[in-house]
Design goal:
Layout: E1 6-9, H1 16-19, H2 22-34, E2 39-41, H3 50-62, E3 68-73, H4 83-98, E4 103-108, E5 112-113, E6 121-122, H5 123-139, E7 143-150, H6 154-162, E8 168-172, H7 196-203, E9 206-210, H8 241-249, H9 253-256, H10 263-272, E10 279-282, H11 287-299, H12 304-315
Parallel strand pairs: 1-2, 1-10, 2-3, 3-4, 4-7, 5-6, 7-8, 8-9, 9-10
Helix pairs in contact: 2-3, 3-4, 4-5, 6-7, 10-11
Length: 322
């Protein structure tokens, strides 16, 4: 399966496909397809099914022939004893809202940890229970490829990827935390994903880049669009969104030095710069934000001199409180 470099994020953080105007939703999906975007990423959790419903409506209206749709399941603690049924029921609900008989990629949405507990699953639960449940659905023709959202504890994520039973991993990778692709400086204030891309490459797992704008922090602005979600709980970077914004602003010399027209452009192009990246997801609140993401992608990855400048700027974060 070949995915476009730019994927269409249908999440709640940007909010277009959850709380946006229906005409804007359909117009932006149509524009994306016309521009060559073929991957649309949604989940039950995005607006409690609203994102899936709205994407399904737009796709039925447009009837495109070559789009790839991915959705997700997040198991609740009360469902851990009946994983097969819970996964099946979640997918059936997703298919009904999307108006599809099959989804192309089905991702596990729970964080994965070594011990499990709470909303997280441990490695053995994923490998021994979730993956077989996913595989059964694939055998039934309801899903094509199996994936995971690679959040949780780094060692547990590596173990699941190394098992070579999944096709896709959604990996956190952005200018504030590039550790999936490179070694972090000592005492760097972010989760260390310890070159997770080395593991995906070795296992033949495709990479979907997520949080490429750090939930919006890499706009360097605290202002949020009226239909955007609230400032998200950071994943993999600072422990507060305000701290992410502060560090993002300290990367503005990339713009001042002429490497990009805006920090969001720089962040989008940075995510494309690693060879392991298959497709990146950018969320949006407006059609204009999609156009900005598309324009950034069309400029291509950041040049090496910009990456070197970024590395120097990021060195200053070492030793700071996460």
């Amino acid at each position: 399966m070949q995915l476009s470099v730019l994927g269409f994020g249908c999440g709640a953080v940007g909010g277009l496909m959850v709380r946006g105007d229906a005409a804007d939703q359909e117009r932006t999906v149509a524009r994306a397809i016309a521009a060559g975007v073929n991957y649309f990423d949604t989940a039950v959790q995005y607006g409690n099914g609203a994102s899936e419903q709205n994407l399904g409506r737009a796709l039925r209206q447009l009837r495109p022939s070559n789009v790839v749709v991915g959705t997700k399941v997040r198991l609740q603690p009360g469902e851990y004893g009946r994983v097969v049924d819970a996964v099946r029921l979640s997918l059936e609900g997703s298919l009904a809202r999307l108006g599809l008989d099959q989804v192309d990629i089905f991702h596990l949405h729970n964080p994965i940890t070594e011990a499990g507990g709470g909303a997280t699953l441990n490695t053995r639960q994923v490998l021994d229970e979730v993956v077989p449940a996913f595989a059964r659905l694939r055998d039934q023709g309801k899903v094509r490829f199996l994936g995971m959202t690679a959040v949780g504890e780094t060692v547990a994520l590596q173990q699941v990827i190394d098992a070579r039973v999944l096709d896709s991993a959604q990996v956190v990778y952005n200018m504030l935390n590039p550790s999936a692709g490179e070694d972090l400086p000592p005492s760097y204030p972010a989760q260390d994903y310890r070159r997770l891309f080395d593991h995906t490459k070795s296992a033949g797992v495709g990479v979907v880049g997520i949080r490429v704008l750090a939930g919006g922090a890499l706009s360097a602005s605290a202002e949020r669009h009226p239909i955007a979600g609230p400032a998200p709980e950071p994943i993999g970077s600072a422990m507060s969104y305000d701290a992410d914004i502060d560090r993002a602003r300290r990367l503005l010399p990339l713009v001042e030095d002429g490497f990009a027209a805006s920090l969001t452009e720089a962040a989008t192009r940075f995510a494309l710069s690693h060879p392991a990246m298959g497709t990146i997801l950018v969320g949006m609140a407006t059609p204009q934000q999609f156009e900005a993401a598309l324009a950034a992608v069309q400029k291509g990855p950041l040049p090496q001199v910009a990456l070197d400048r970024l590395s120097v700027l990021r060195q200053a974060f070492s030793g700071e409180t996460r």
